[in-house]
Amino acid sequence: MSRDHRPSYLEIRDLRVVFDKFVAVDGVDLRVEQGDLRFLIGPNGAGKTTTIDAVTALAPAQGSINHNGHELVGRKTHKIVRYGVGRTFQTASVFEDLTVLQNLDIAAGLRRRPRDMVRTRQEVSPRILEVMETTGLSRHQETKAGVLSHGQKQWLEIGMLMVQDATVLLLDEPVAGMSQGERDATGELLTKLAADHVVVVVEHDMEFLRKYAQSVTVMAAGKVIAEGTVAQVQADSTVQEIYLGTAGTKSLEEAKVEAELLGLDPEAVAVSGSTQSKEN
Ligand SMILES: Nc1ncnc2c1ncn2[C@@H]1O[C@H](COP(=O)(O)OP(=O)(O)OP(=O)(O)O)[C@@H](O)[C@H]1O
User: Which ranges carry the ABC transporter domain (predicted)?
Assistant: First the structure.
């Protein structure tokens, strides 16, 4: 929730990201509000990660990115974090030699004065206890992050954003490499978080998307090509064409599985794929 109690939002307008002369993101508009659980999907190289990199100033952005009235384009990453925008990476960036509690304490410390940074266990803040509970990490508070499972590391990273009071959570392939149980727990966690955060999930896992997405934005070649509910994007002819034609960027088997999970006819991919035999 924004400070004036209106729902938080992230509004991207006409975003362009150019690397040398290569246009990776080409005029993207995207508005996501608190209460939604938005998935950002598209074939490899579509510009999904570059879009969230641009929001957090990790890629050079042109256009406008507004969070609750604050323009983010032109701001440095640390300032954007202060505005409440947080992100995770495909490989969790936690401090492996520190415990869960220490990781959370350091993240929370980004909002504290340096002399208050070192705290004893007795002083664990109610907020950190609450975040460990929400992320299912309470039992692991003294466990070193390095020995956590892949899923638990992702949850710790999300927890680190929560204790920083992030209002926007940009999550890059959070369930990649997770077990089925971890996927379900993550889906439930994201559903809970979406009620009072702006949540954007970049994902390739179509089964996860079909189960948890409330809305979907589809990108291809740097542009948004469709947006709507899962059912709406599944029925979209441009999306069908892009997915049926993705055999050029994936193996034929991967494209077939993805098409099937999206509710499309995998055999149509085989026909499309057979015309792109140079890739297969
Ligand atoms: N720092 C960079 N310099 C040059 N080109 C880049 C850079 N970062 C990304 N690109 C290119 O921009 C395009 C979009 O990449 P991006 O990683 O955003 O795609 P994506 O949709 O996230 O794909 P994937 O699903 O494979 O992660 C790709 O062609 C990529 O090679």
Answer: 10-246
Structure tokens at 238: 């441009």
Cα–Cα distance for residue pair 260/53, rounded to 1 Å: 30
Parse the chain into domains and list their residue ranges. 9-229, 236-280
Residue ranges around ligand 1 (CB below 6 Å): 19, 22, 24, 42, 44-50
Separation of alpha carbons 33 and 31, rounded Å = 7
Model ipTM value: 0.96
Does this model's pTM top 0.90? My answer is: no
DSSP string, 124-156: --HHHHHHHHHTT-GGGTTSBGGGS-HHHHHHH
Q: Identify the architecture of domain 9-229 in CATH.
A: 3-Layer(aba) Sandwich (3.40)
Per DSSP, the chain holds a count of helices (H) and strands (E) of 11, 10
Pocket test for ligand 1, best of 15, 18, 19 (most atoms within 8 A of CB): 19
